[in-house]
Write a structure and sequence with these properties.
single chain, 286 residues, alpha+beta, SH3 type barrels, 5-stranded antiparallel sheet, 7 helices, disordered C terminus
């Protein structure tokens, strides 16, 4: 049995991501606790435990980080004071982005617990040369300046919230790196005809939940003949396969006189089609 890497997932305000800090035997930290922790660089930061005692991969663990204490009233006062200054810094950075005509969108500005560093969180589709921006910000605020580029999924994961299903966002509850969601996952589940508005999450990308049942759909898909196959049923009826409901294991067959529904379990034999393949969006009954 492999050794477990138990860790507390801390939503670090300065790092703008979840930092997985080793959980020590006997510690009493729990989900929802505000804590001060030392990061891998030895800097003290503040954050909220969003996952307690989680088993994480070695690659996701911050091995030299450690929780120092639950946040004190003094720590929380520092955090709130930093938030006031971060608002001013946020507006100043936006003005400078416009001045230098940089193709980037500022998402947030956060300040380290000790007040010595500023982290400007942004998104961009292009490579950005922000050297002049950093110089101007450092000159104005006399602090160490960091610029951190994130993607739409990273933003949704950190901010958290609720999806269309009414449940907490999957990305916010995922431990470690987010899995890539692809159109192949959509096609396997026969959902290509659903439209981007139904397939996209709050981040604008394909929903994380599209990956949850891919393995099951792959397995169920093996029972169904290829689209346009000639299918013969156990009762002697036959037809061309024109649609399928993978989850419920049903098919729509075009017979000589009419179309009808049939169960996959009732197949006696089938002849695959000749020639080119097909589009999954054509054969979904869902």
């Amino acid at each position: 049995m492999s050794k477990k890497n138990l860790a507390h997932g801390i939503s670090s305000f300065f790092h703008y991501k979840t930092v997985y800090v080793p959980a020590l035997s006997g510690d009493e930290y729990a989900k929802g606790d505000m804590v001060v922790f030392s990061d891998d660089e030895g800097k003290n930061e503040i954050g909220e435990i969003i996952i307690a005692n989680a088993d994480v991969s070695k690659d996701d663990l911050s091995p030299t980080a450690e929780i120092l204490r639950k946040a004190t009233q003094n720590d929380l006062q520092k955090m709130h004071a930093n938030k006031e200054l971060s608002g001013e810094a946020n507006e100043a950075c936006k003005d400078l982005i416009g001045k230098f005509s940089l193709s980037m969108t500022l998402i947030d500005t956060v300040i380290s617990l000790d007040g010595s560093r500023m982290n400007f969180i942004f998104t961009s589709e292009d490579r950005v040369d922000f050297r002049e921006l950093v110089k101007e910000l450092a000159k104005k605020f006399q602090k160490q300046i960091h610029l951190q580029q994130i993607g739409p999924r990273d933003k949704a994961r950190f901010v958290r919230g609720y999806g269309k299903c009414g449940r907490m966002l999957c990305c916010g509850q995922t431990i470690g790196k987010l899995r890539s969601i692809t159109m192949d996952m959509v096609r396997v589940q026969g959902m290509s005809n659903k439209g981007s508005d139904k397939l996209s999450g709050v981040c604008g990308k394909l929903m994380c939940c599209l990956s949850h049942e891919v393995a099951e759909y792959d397995e169920l898909r093996k029972n169904i003949p290829p689209f346009l196959s000639h299918v013969v049923l156990k009762d002697g009826k036959s037809g061309i396969l024109r649609g399928m409901d993978i989850l419920n294991q049903k098919m729509r067959l075009d017979g000589e006189k009419e179309s009808f529904m049939a169960n996959v379990a009732d197949i006696k034999k089938f002849t695959p089609p000749k020639g080119e393949g097909h589009s999954e969006s054509e054969n979904s009954l869902m």
